[in-house]
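Exercise: predict the fold of this chain.
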Amino acid sequence: MSFKRVIALNKLSFGFVLLLILLEAGLSVLFPLFIGYAIDDALVQTYGGAALLGGLGLVTLLIGAGRRFYDSRFYAHIFRDLGAQVGNNAHETTSAKSAHLRFLGEVVEFFENSMPEIVNSLIGLVGTLVIIITLDMPVFFGCLAMLAVVIIVYSITRKKTVRFNACYNDEQEQRVAVLSKQNRPLLRQHLSCLMKWNIKLSDLETINFSVVWLFMMVFLVLAVVGAASQGMMTYGAIFSLILYAFQFIENASVMPLFYQQWLRLTEIMDRLKFTNEKL
């Protein structure tokens, strides 16, 4: 049974988890705006904005905590069902089954922990852009330029990322077989190969992130200077704009990391799909 099939059989539970993720992400986008309201109200000695900010924080906390309690149990159920099938596959060696169970754990962990962050970042990107366009058009166009930089940088290195992950996973599948031979030189060679591909992946990500972050810092400095020069904006609006610009940078910077992770998991799911076809 494939991962997609298990999700389909539990579509109501998965839909409920996704709904909670969307609600939590949508509320999180409002924080800088509500902080701006609270600042403006506090400057005139009223505290309605602060009360709204506190209420937003409480509702977000309740939804986020409820979602985490629920989805940890949901994904544990999925891992148990799929893991039992992978572990009982008579067509695989013990080494391959051990690696596939670990790969399956990575897939489940991605959906449980990374998927909410991805949704939050996506909604954060869209939400910040929508609000920024109402506050300052030059900053909005700067955001679009930064998105173009991110897409170009990571598109250029996509093939290398997929190849490095495939080589790393190939070596992972040999681990139990290598350990069972109790051959120290062979084990050192195996671990060296693992680390070689891990270092290549790390170096590639470091270069990509550094290039993107350099452009992001230039954008942030220009956004701060531009916001400070807006004489028609309130202090709260200026502060909100700066916060949204920084939030945009955070979301735009983390999305490529999830993209890299997704490329790895796509390669892993192809392996697990091949395993499931033989069950």
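Check your answer against the key: The chain has a mean pLDDT of 77.
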